[in-house]
Design brief:
The chain has about 400 residues and is an alpha/beta fold. The chain has 10 helices and 20 strands. The model has no long low-confidence stretch (mean pLDDT about 95).
Length: about 400
């Protein structure tokens, strides 16, 4: 197995069990290391530290284990089993009203570079590292061993998540079995899963608990769901007794999916209407129309070098949302940008609120659900931030 040696002092993050080794920390490495190889890392005194996948870029190694062990088939079985048992422990696997959850959440499940979402028998996999992609056959086999007949198909959706410079030329497709798009259930509500063409793995599983909270506030309110994608917040609001729900997205396909999902749950219900329109343009003409507004945009910043522009985008969006909501109204606002920290997001929303001159209170501070666990040693895993604001 290939070897990496760190510069003096650069081993401290690994002593704190942080799962990344940055390229600037490396003193020397074997010449024959290829991207995706399993490598061992040592400190400058040649003491073993960890084993993981080597990759080209600022993150040079993703740690798989701090023990000196083989990354073989039994390793994959054990890690996937541990992740599955976590979902059993939090009650997601046996809940008859829910057959959707995240099974593997990267560093949160000690499998950096791997995401797996489970949709009523279909596991949709996204590989974010070359090492994980190269291990896809073993991961597929291990997934089947752990979950047995709970798996009818495994779909690889990694075309857009793997580093393009690696030259892998990945193609989305089935690793096991086959399934047509179908209806899944979350908290008793139905939705179409489009893992073939939809964003991420087909649905934003991470907003499950936040959607349920919104349902509790929706009664008798006029609700605006911006960046609605497949309409998750919209049909929860309808079940919560909203008087009116408007869904807005710049994507016609997203609006099509939203309308399908609303019809699945509330056929012929005239309370809902959807619009294909730019978010900022729609908000400009929405003054004093809505009691509850959801602002759940796609990530404005995926990398540190565009963070400043993203902050301005979040300020503009939240300022407008706070400006137009009715007095005594609520704003559910979110950021899924990993580089936007919880404190920075709150500060950005504070600035936006101050610019409106309105009195604003924080009712809830929201995050990702338990099936998106955050390793205590990897705080960067807390990517989803949310606030529920009361606007006087």
């Amino acid at each position: 197995m290939s070897k990496i040696v760190l510069k003096a002092g650069k081993e401290r993050s690994l002593y704190r069990l942080h799962p990344w080794v940055f390229s600037g920390a490396i003193a020397k490495k074997d010449n024959d290391i290829q991207e995706g190889d399993v490598v061992k890392v040592y400190n400058h005194d040649n003491e073993y530290l960890a084993v993981g996948h080597y990759q080209i870029g600022s993150i040079a190694m993703r740690v798989l284990s701090f023990k000196e062990e083989e990354i073989d088939y039994p390793f994959w079985v054990e890690r996937i089993r541990q992740a599955y048992q976590t979902r059993v422990a939090i009650g997601l696997v046996t809940n008859p009203d829910n057959n959707v959850y995240r099974l593997i959440h990267g560093e949160g499940d000690d499998l950096s570079g791997l995401i797996i979402d489970y949709y009523a028998g279909v596991a949709v996999v996204q590989f974010h590292s070359v090492g994980m992609y190269k291990a896809r056959k073993e991961i597929t086999k291990a997934l089947l061993e752990v979950m047995g007949d709970k798996i009818t198909a495994i779909y690889d959706k990694s075309e857009g998540t793997l580093p393009y410079k690696a030259g892998l030329n990945p193609k989305n497709g089935y690793l096991y079995g086959h399934a047509d798009n179908f209806v899944a259930i979350e908290n008793g509500l139905k939705f179409n899963v489009d893992w073939l063409e939809g964003q991420k793995t087909g649905f934003f599983v991470d907003q499950r608990e936040n959607r349920r909270l919104l349902e509790q506030y929706a009664r008798d309110k006029n609700v605006l769901n911006m960046f609605c994608y497949t309409g998750g917040f919209s049909f929860y609001a309808m079940r919560g007794g909203a008087k009116l729900v408007h869904s807005v997205d710049a994507s016609a396909r997203a609006i099509e999916l939203t309308n399908q999902n609303v019809e699945l749950n509330f056929p012929g219900d005239s309370r809902h209407e959807a619009f294909v329109e730019d978010a900022f343009k729609f908000l400009e003409k929405s003054h004093n129309k809505y009691d509850l507004i959801i602002l759940d945009p796609p990530a404005f910043a995926k990398h540190q070098n565009v963070l400043d522009n993203a902050i301005q985008g979040y300020k503009k969006l939240n300022r407008k949302g706070i400006e137009v909501v009715k007095p005594g109204g609520l704003v559910f606002t979110f950021s899924c940008s990993q580089v936007m920290t919880k404190d920075l997001f709150r500060q950005t929303v504070f600035t936006a609120a101050a610019n409106t001159g309105r009195k604003v209170k924080i009712l809830h501070q929201l995050t990702q659900p338990a099936d998106h666990p955050i390793s205590i040693y990897h705080p960067e895993g807390e990517y989803l931030k949310g606030l529920v604001l009361y606007v006087e």
